[in-house]
Every structure is written in C-alpha cells, then in structure tokens.
Predict the structure.
Amino acid sequence: MRSDAHDDAADDRVVVKGDETAVAMTVSAADAQIGRRPDEGLDASKRGAKTGFGRLDDDDQNHGQVAKGLFGQVHADLLRMLPSRSTTERVAKALGAAMQEALPRIEPLVRAEERVPEGAKSIVVGLDRTSTPMREPREDGTTAPRRARTRSYERKAPAPIDVNYRMSYVGTVSLVDAHGDALVTRRYGIGAHGDPESIVARMMEDLRAAHAQRPDLLVGVVQDGAPEMWKLVRAGLAKEPSVAAIGGAFEAIDRHHLLERLCDALLITKHTPAYREKKRHEWNETLDRDDAAIDRIEEEIIVLHRGHRGPVRKKLHEHRTYIENNKDRMRYAELVARGLPVGSGATEGACKSLVQVRAKGCGQRWLPNGLDAVLVLRGLEMSDRLPPAFRELEREYQATVLRRAA
C-alpha cells in the first residue's frame, strides 16, 4: 500500500538520517512532545544544543560529547513514548481502512493456511444483530437545548447531531466437537450502513475451506428466530454444493430463546415458583430426548391461552404463535444425538465481545468509517487471524523513503 497523503502527526514516510532510520510518525510524535524538528539536534557535538541542563558551548568538545550522550538518551526515551490519543485514533482508522480494502486479497491467503482442528465434527454458523450508537447529522438542523449561561461562551457551537442506535450485524462460524463445544470460532461484524450479505459471504468461504479438508463435517445453523437473519443464512447455504452433498444443514432456534418464552408463559399465568422450576426442568429433559416434545409443549401453551383473558391472553398468543412458526427448528433431540449445539452462545457472545464491549462504552458514538475500522481489526484479532493478516498486509505495504541532511 502506497500513501502519498499524510500529515505531520501520522504518515508512512521513512526518515533516513545518517546511520539512523526511524518511522516518521514515531519521530514526529516524539519530537512534538518537546516542540523540536525531527532532524534537529542529531549532532549536538558540532553545534549548540538546548537541554534541560542549560546551553552548551559549540567549541567545547567535552561538553559536546556530554550533550550528545544526554540527547541520545532523551531521544531514545521519547521514541518509546506512546503517541497522542488523536494520533492513535487517526492511525487506527487508517490501518483499519487499509485492512478492510485488502481483506478480499488477504483473507483467502490466511484461510488457506488454517487447518480443521483435530476432533472437529461439525460446522455451526449463526447471524445476529446488536445495536450501536451512531453519530448522525440532525435532519432539521436544530440544536439541542442548552442551559442558560452566566458568562459569555466564545467557542462556536458544533453542527447539530443526534445519537441514534442502529443495528450492527454479527456472524460466527464455529468448528465444534462431538459434544457441541466450540474448538475454534471466527467472528465477523459490520455496521448497519454495511451489507450483511458480505458477512454471510465470508462465513460461507470459511465453510467451503473447512469442507475442502473435511467433506464429512455436518453443518448446523443455530440462531434466534428473526426471519431476516434466516433468509440471509439460508440464501448463502443454498449456493454451497458441499452443503447439498451432505443432505443440507440442520437448523435450530436457540433454545434459550424458547425457554425464555416458556418460563414467561408460566410466570404471567401466576404459577408458583416451585411449579415453574419443576416444569422448566421437565421441558428441558423432554426436549433433549424426544423430537416430538415441542408438539406436546405447544398443546400446553394452547390450553393456557384458551383459559385466560385480557393482556395475559394477548401475551400467551404471542408465545403460541412463536412456537407454531418455529417448532420445526425446535426438535433438539436429533441435534443433541449428532453432537450439534442447541444454543447460539457463540453468536450471542460475539455480539457482546466484538461490538458491545468496544463500541457501546459510556458516551461513545460512531461514524461509519471509525466503526468499520474497529470491527475489521477486532474481528480479525478475536478470530486469531490478526498476526497472519498483518504479515500479508506488510507484503503489500510500500513506504516513501526521504533522505534528510544530517
């Protein structure tokens, strides 16, 4: 990657000074701390140098050698200083943008070096969404109300914005063992402004690469009941011949979502805590043993629905409709027998660890380019792909070398 556009705080130039070579961004960040030009003071023995110990005479050779030693240590210490927050932010965004642009070339190379772990029995994919605070211009141009000030305010008010929560997409691909435990998980994220099909395409590339090594791996889809998420994943799987070759993918609604609704049905119908716990345990056991268990559970919810009126009946109708629409993906006994997971913990966890922990801190709000940079780099790091991805990116990197007079 060659970049000719740069600023004083962050660029990709390499500064060559006699026998010393340093990245310009590092030099400028260090030099900026003391207000000095990057090439100033490198030969303190031949000219005067200002230090914290006073000014040393040009013609005093001994003092010059002392100055050179002191300055060399100070300069080395400064080069080890962390850059400013604004510099780090600019560099991170630029790096994330460069990685995002290079991913179509880099990721296949990284994926080709990966091996299916020993003991893997299945591939499990999932897609979900989670909210992210986005900084957006206010459409009507009005400013937010401010408290009355007792003294003049000289700074110009920034352009009015709103912080709106938009749904970012998160996808995962896990290789699981015979007990349904994940051996390795790849995580992908993209903001609401992006195309979720791009995540699905990357997930399918993972699946294709795993099947190239192990065609016998079963495929499962475990996620919540959002129809748009199922539509996206099913469309991606339909294009994969290796999935058709094994008879298609097993589908399951995350059982935690089902149990939440079942427990809520018992709660709003005023059953005792002891009875609710007993019933929950009974339903869990039968769902593990019998694929027809969900049909019997549906009948119990129908009975509850018919026996109540008012708001409780309305809520029970929602639970009844949810089971009716999704019960074909609630037959967990076969999945358990085949070693497939019945919960979408990998995907739900990625929503938190990939997006929420990083992007939903107190006071945070994001622009699309900043969020993209974070999710690309964080997704690679959490998928154990960041070091190999950087190695591939380095091979594309080209710096402009400038020589400055000593």
